[in-house]
Amino acid sequence: MNQERALDYSDSVNRNRSSTARKRIITGSVVIIGGTSGITGRDAERARGVAAELAAATAAATAAAGAEDDAGTPPARGLAVDLSRPHDIAAALAGIDPVDRLALVAIERDMNTIANYDIDKAVRLTTLKLVGYHAVVHALKSRLSPDSSVLLFGGVAKDHPYEGSTTVSTINAGVIGMMRTLAVELAPIRVNSLHTWMIEDSPFWRDKPETVKWAGSHTLTHRLPTSADVVDAAALLLNNPGLNAVGLRVDCGM
Q1: 164 partner at 20 to 30 Å CA-CA among 19, 95, 154, 253?
Q2: Cβ neighbours of 13 (radius 10 Å)
Q3: CA nearest neighbour of 63 among 24, 114, 5, 112
Q4: Would you tell me how many other CB atoms lie within 10 Å of the CB of residue 130?
Q5: 3-class DSSP state for residue 165?
Q6: Nearest by Cα to 94 from 36, 136, 48, 34
Q7: If DSSP codes are grouped into helix, strand and coil, which group holds residue 248?
Q8: Cβ neighbours around 205 below 10 Å, total
Q9: Is there a cis peptide before residue 98, judged by omega within 30 degrees of 0?
């Protein structure tokens, strides 16, 4: 068993990366809220990266169909909205119409403990994700159709807290409650959530190869998920009409 677990991590990753031929296509008019206006550094870079990959997946569908709407607007729109300022969200989204797929991919890292509790940081992050997500859905509700879908990004810290994740773990657990409540309130519009762990090629982890190798060796698949894996999962949750109120973990079986 130990020999099996010691399977070379790099070999496992290389085999799984043969998935480059996968077609990550998101159909319809897609709005991607990155939440990066008020975020800086690696978190902003990661959020922009996820948003860009989702937009690219939408562009693939557009190219295949030769589709643009009547106004000539490409169906993928990535927006940096400061979700920590929820009163400004409706105005920022005033020109968006219609919305077939809505992805909320705001990412901000926070290190907070009860022993050294930073109230301002906790309020900001709680507002950004829990209030900000709700405010976006509220602002765009009238522009969603019965066939639309909403995707909320959370995180695996909801299940696996670590030192400093007091706020992060609490908020990502809240995303599950938000997903379930919105699925009921917005029905028949579908609402799902996606929860990731360490993303191997994200800005935060890609220059930490030893940590990535160690963490990958402790998953059931001997690797960590990549950005491509996350986008595949997002496309599935956004497109598949059979998936509703699903909280999907993308963690390679941590």
Answers
A1: 253
A2: 18
A3: 24
A4: 18
A5: strand
A6: 136
A7: strand
A8: 17
A9: yes
More confident residue, 81 or 151: 151
Which residue spans within the chain are E strands per DSSP? 30-33, 76-79, 99-104, 144-153, 190-196, 247-250
Interatomic CA distance for residues 73 and 192, integer angstroms: 26
Distance CA 36, CA 44 (A): 5
User: Which amino acid, 86?
Assistant: P
* Cis check: omega of the bond before 241, within 30 degrees of 0: no
- Name the token pair of 44: 């902003």
Tokens, residue 182: 């919105």
Strands (E), 119-184: 144-153
| Segment 166-202, tens digit of pLDDT | 999 999 999 999 999 999 999 999 999 999 988 888 8
How many Å apart are CA 235 and CA 57, to the nearest integer? 8
Amino acid identity at 10: S
Six-digit token string for 132: 């900000």
Count the residues in the chain.
254
Cα(148)–Cα(102) distance, rounded to whole angstroms? 8
pLDDT tens digits, 8-28: 444 444 544 444 444 566 778
140-156: b or e for each residue (b if 16 or more CB lie within 10 Å)?
bbebbeeebbbbbbbbb
Both tokens of 29, joined, read 């008019």
83: left (phi over 0), alpha (psi -120 to 50) or beta: alpha
